[in-house]
Write a structure and sequence with these properties.
By secondary structure, the protein is mainly β. The chain has a single domain (22-89), classed as RNA polymerase II/Efflux pump adaptor protein, barrel-sandwich hybrid domain (OB fold (Dihydrolipoamide Acetyltransferase, E2P)). It is built from no helices and 8 strands. The chain has strands at 22-23, 30-31, 36-39, 45-47, 51-53, 59-61, 65-75, 81-89. The protein is elongated, with a radius of gyration of 21 Å. The relative contact order is 0.23.
Length: 90
């Protein structure tokens, strides 16, 4: 027989590291080809000219230049028009 009573299960002991999401380069900063500009979950910011969108929604620079953020209207699937931030490289 055990000399210690059952301790039960250990809950809430697992912890995962942060994903380091967010804006990596701000407007006016220089960027080189392939550099990460924004890491995000979903398309909170849209890719514009001079940028590409990867499979995990990361926005990369597709040419050398200067990062620029602007606002544009985007039509949703429901037909509603909303403002979204567009990232471009000039």
């Amino acid at each position: 027989m055990s000399h210690v009573k059952a301790g039960g299960t250990a809950k809430n002991i697992h912890d995962s590291p942060g994903q380091r999401l967010g804006v990596k380069l701000y407007g006016g900063q220089k960027v080189k080809v392939g550099q990460v500009i924004v890491r995000q979950v979903g398309m909170t910011k849209r890719p514009g000219p001079g940028t590409t969108l990867s499979k995990n929604f990361t926005i990369h620079a597709s040419r050398d230049g200067v990062v620029n953020y602007s606002s544009r209207k985007v039509r949703l699937f429901s037909g509603k028009s909303v403002r979204r931030t567009e990232v471009s490289v000039n």
